[in-house]
Amino acid sequence: MPEQNIVPENLNNSPASTAPAVPPSSAIPPPGVSAPNVTETKTSQSSYPKKDLIIAGVIGLLCALLILPIAENLAIKSLYAYALIIILPLLSIMGMWLAGYLAQKLHFIYQLAKFILVGLLNTFVDWGILNLLMFLTSATSGYLYMIFKGFSFLAATSNSYAWNKFWTFKKSSDDHPSAEKKAAGKEFLQFFVVSLIGFSLNVGVATLVVNVLGPQMGVSAQLWANIGALGGTLAGLTWNFLGYKLIVFKD
Description:
This protein is globular. 75% of the residues lie in helices and 0% in strands. The protein is mostly helical. It is built from 9 helices and no strands.
């Protein structure tokens, strides 16, 4: 009987079964070109969410509403104050959008813009509550004024802590609720100390400019007082931003 070449069946399909799968050419980048980082692209697109524009508008509206008791107490025409209800939210939104644009080159600009908006709101919380209490009681000096100023400062500080913690310097936390609560107490104490130092710098610089240096170059006493207040505000603002970022809400 002639010999027959018998080929096992499992060898017929061996090339197809053992050949490695080749990915489609579209999935392989050309030589010298790295594959796009999808995560990085998504991050860059979502770094500055549009909800921040809405929050900025809300802050602008709150500032405008807090200006109303100030205008009432200082006998400023209410028409101008009510116009700010429209103007300030629009300016806040435009400023936040501009900060997002500039932050593509300088990332800290975006956080600084948030901090400035919150700082403005805190200022008007302080002044608004103070002027409202003075308007209701007609007390502009003495012990009542000291009590009013202390209360308005505490209200502004609490407001500042909430906005800076949950918006300006917001960070994710995976800690246990009890540990997180304990850390929050320490964090608020640090925040209060930093704010108190900032308040001291604010008042100290303004007092130095107004009472020690005195009006310069023929500037009126009223204008010089506002120049001193501006210097104090800038000193306190700089300290608070660095203190909150590097001490209280550090990553």
